Amino acid sequence: MHLICHARTFISRTPHPKLVEESAVEAVEQTTHAWSKRTVMLSCIRTQGDVETPVVKTLDLLSTGYRRGGLLEEILASSECPISEVRACHFIRLLNRAAHNPDAKDIFNTAIAKLFPRDLSRLISHLDNVIDGYGGVSRSIPIGNFKHFLVQCRTPLADGELIKNIKLASRHKEVRRTKAPQHNLYVPDIFDGNFLAKELSSINFEDLADRDEKAKAILEKSVTETRAVCEQIITRHDKLVKHLERLSNTELPESIPKRIRSAVARGSLPHLRHWAQISPEDLLHLHTYVIDKAKAHQGNRIQVVFREKLNEFWSLPNCPPCETFSMLLSRHYLPRTVITACFVLLLDNIGWNWPTLRSVNLENIVEDDSGYTIQGVKHKTGQIQKAELTDLPQADDIDLAEADDEEEDELEAGFSTLPPKKVTDPLCTHAIELLMQHRRNIDKYFKPRSKSIFVSMSFTTRNSPTFLFEVGRLPLYLKTFCRLTGLEEFTFSDLRHRAAHTRYLATGRDIIQTQLFLGHAAADVTTVYLNSTIIRLLGEANLLKYVTLLSDCVFYATGRKDKLDARQLARVKKNNLLLFPPSTLEDKGVDCIADRWVDSFGKMPFLIGKPEVAHIALQYRLYTRNLPALVQAGHERFVARHLPRIVFCCALYQVVAIGPLSQELKRFEAGYAKSS
Hints:
The chain is of the alpha+beta class. Helices cover 49% and strands 10% of the residues. It has helices at residues 61-64, 71-78, 85-98, 102-108, 117-131, 140-150, 208-248, 258-266, 272-275, 280-294, 324-328, 336-350, 354-358, 400-412, 426-445, 474-485, 492-506, 511-518, 523-530, 534-557, 566-574, 593-599, 610-632, 635-657, 662-675, and strands at residues 2-6, 20-21, 26-30, 34-35, 39-48, 51-60, 83-84, 186-188, 197-199, 365-367, 371-377, 384-390, 421-423, 456-459, 467-470. The strands form 5 sheets. Strands 2, 4, 5, 6 and 7 form a 5-stranded mixed sheet that branches. Strands 10-11-12-13 form a 4-stranded mixed sheet. A two-stranded antiparallel ribbon has the order 1-3. The longest helix has 41 residues, at 208-248. It is extended and about 110 Å long. Mean pLDDT is 75; it is low at 1-29, 177-202 and 393-416. Keywords: DNA recombination.
């Protein structure tokens, strides 16, 4: 059941098709979106941080011409209730614009049982034309938002097909983010003496174990850089707090002119020209004195003068001027910069989704002799996730047997709780302690709507004398945080991905350990999760290594050695990791998997992955197209060398063609055929 707030709506004589938001006057219970003769009111939820407020968005039916009994009513009847306010705004805006298109409006007013897939394709085309008139660059958002509602329709079309099974193409494709975090696409090769920035796929490696070690080192280097920035901010904050406490417990020094000391003691503000002569240390002392005298930490904002002189003391020296007041109150409350540093640090170590960590409040934190146990709620599933923060030097790996037993006990008790994670980082423990004290101080004088420990100070208006505490838009502020600290821009989701990949490689590619670390219900979800970034790129790096070598082999095999430099020539002659030799014309010093497998009478095991499939496709193409030339080049050499390799290649080709990598084989063959 959801609470929907109604209020008076002012409608002109000629109503304009616009979205009307209702204010909170009277609350009524409503489980569906409400239709009337004049309007349809959508039950929505406005989310601000971790606080949700029920609101109503209204579509005028009279001015737009939409009617009940058609596709539009089916869409709203099948959609979630309440709807995210942002989604509702995009949806109503599109409907208002589409009302001027008679064909689109006719489809919306037609019963879904009378529509065919071609009608929906025409509707998408009409909506694309409508979106062409939108301003801005994100035109894929409104059509993607409309498809979100459309695919939820449960009533079959005229031909019995469900909409979710129909592919509806739009001209406005989603534009992927091009600026990816450093650990996703471009990473510094820390094994290069010059530390040159290279693509991940250019990492040199000798075998899979070597590749994994280098990939893990790159991830750990990225983690270290992020941790160092967060640690520096927290350390500077601790230093600032001690400094402010010392100033608060001492009298104003004689170095401050008596005129200024007297004026401040009376509660007045001296002329700015007198403040300009004061040193930064004395200026900070004066502000501390004024804050204590005015009890500014209880909600009375004071005027801050010569902010630039105080920057050297802050936890982040180049913080925006709007954060100066919160820095001055560091004894009582954490500035947003410090809260973000704590959030990033905890997220990087625990590996939760960021909304789960944001949900942690004082009631979810339990202190014991070993440290703290924090508890968060997973937003999507409602599962309870736990993490143990301790300074004890114990292993942070999860005991799978104990985890299974705990999970069974929780399920029997009627709860859905994931096994706890143990984090032995002292800095994380200190971050939790700072956040707990921060929240306790807030609760003494304020009553924020959010119970999260990650609330930070904000002002109702730019020049407002009062301030309040809320979670705010942490993901949006993260961009500012990265810019101020010099970190490569990333998102909170990137931290979870990076933590997952680090755990996956550190545990020897143990998918079960990674699944428990991420809190996924099934391992196949974890597989998709890992395949999204560095693991996929490492596979491409493996493929690139062989393709690069094969391109060198082509020049070598055709006698065009002048096209190869010394490094490329050495790579062609010395590489011994290929399925087949790099050249069909030279056998001296050649060692390949094909020859070793034949010499072992088929007993030598070897792995087949995408790089090997690429080589099989290319080698099979070489043999089928050049078999007469190989025979004519020398019968004895052909029987001794080429024939065993050809038989091995053909047999391997047949195995791959009927196995799980058959599609990869076809893709490589099509690519080689097209390139020729």
